[in-house]
Design goal:
single chain; 96 residues; alpha/beta; FAD/NAD(P)-binding domain; three-stranded parallel beta sheet
């Protein structure tokens, strides 16, 4: 129970939304931290469709991996604040 108490207060930064990153984000959001911030400015490619289950064909060449995944990740747990950042600064890193 102590661990769950700590988890719900956590602000987590996940860098990368390929296979491992998106799976980690999904599982973490289902567990329920205070917030999850995504950083992956890479534009979705065809190869991402096989490693990121939230990327779709209409995302290819148009939006970043973080942008492609954020809405579906947010739907998993409305009590978790899910956001994305387009660049990481030392100030931003200090929040995690």
């Amino acid at each position: 129970m102590e661990t769950m108490g700590k988890l719900i207060k956590m602000n987590v930064l996940i860098v990368g939304q390929r296979g491992l990153g998106v799976e980690t984000a999904k599982n973490l959001i289902l567990a329920g931290p205070a917030s999850v911030t995504l950083y992956d400015p890479t534009i979705v490619t065809w190869g991402d469709l096989s490693s990121n289950f939230f990327c779709r064909e209409e995302h290819v060449g148009k939006i970043s991996r973080a942008e492609a995944t954020i809405s579906k990740l947010q739907e998993l747990n409305l009590n978790v604040r899910v956001k994305k950042v387009d660049q990481l600064t030392t100030e931003e890193m200090g929040n995690y």
